[in-house]
Amino acid sequence: MTQKVNAGLAILEEMLNRLPRSERKIAEYILKYPKESINFTAVELGKKSGTSSAAVIRLCKSIQVNSFQDLKLRIAGDLQHERKDVRDIEPNESFETMVEKITVQSIRSLRETTNMLDMEQLSNAVKAILQANHIYFFGVGASGIAAMDAQQKFMRIHKQCSFYPDVHLAATAVANASENDLIFGISFSGETHEVSKILEIGIEAGAKTISLTRYGNCLVADLAEINLYTASSLEPAFRSGATSSRLAQLHVIDILFMCVATSTFEQTIGYLDATRMAIDTLHQKVPKRKTANEQELNE
Asked: Coil, helix or strand for 201?
C-alpha cells in the first residue's frame, strides 16, 4: 500500500490549539502562507515565523509526521486541491445556502479524512478484524451511531460482533473478552470517558484494541494499539448535530468493511447473499400451522 502525502494543512488546523506557543507560531505561519512555506528549509521557516529550526522539528513530532520534508509534501498535495472555507450556519439563511454549506462541508470532511488514513494502521486494523473471534464496538452519542453501523455491517459477513448502547452492559460483556477478541472504541473528541473505560477494561482482559478518533494525541487513541483518525477541524462551533464527524466516522467504517470484504471476497459474497435472502423471506407470508385435529382430518 502507498501512503498518501497530503492532509498537511488539515493536520495543522486540527492540532493548532494543542501546540506549545513556539510550535503554534510556526503552524499559524504555514497556514497563512502555505505556498511559500513549502519552499523553505527548517532554518528559513524558523526565521520567518520568529522561532527556530529546532521548533520546526518539534512541530513535526507533535503533529506526528515523519519529518519537515514529509510535512511539505503533504502541504504540496493539499495545494493541488481547492480548499473552500467552511462556515457555521447563521440565523435565517436561505435553504439554497444551507444546501451549499453542508455539501461543501461533507465533501471536504470525507476527502481530508481519507487523506489522514495511515495505510499501515489501516492494514493492521483489517488484520485485527479478520483474526478476531468477537468484536465489541462501542461509542457514545453520535459516535454510537457509527458503532451500531459497524456492528450491522460486519454481522452481515459472519463476523461475531456486538454493540451495547448501555455502558454497563458493554462493560459486563468486555470484561469477559479474551486475547482473541477485539475492542473497537469510537470517540470524536478522543476524550470520552465511557469509551476510554471500555478500552481499559478490554486491555485488562487481554483483548486487542482499535480507536477511531479525531487526529492527534488523545486519551482514547493513547489507550488503543491501533489508531485510525478522522478530520475534525471542519466541525463548526454549532456542530450541526455532529454532521462532519459522524460522516467521517461512517466513511472510515465503510473503508474498513470493504477492505475486509475484498480480503475474503468469496466468503463475503456468500454471507451477503445468505443475509439478503433471509431479509427477503421476511416479506413472505408465514404459513399457518395445522392443528392436531386438522392433521388427523387430512390423514
From this structure: helix
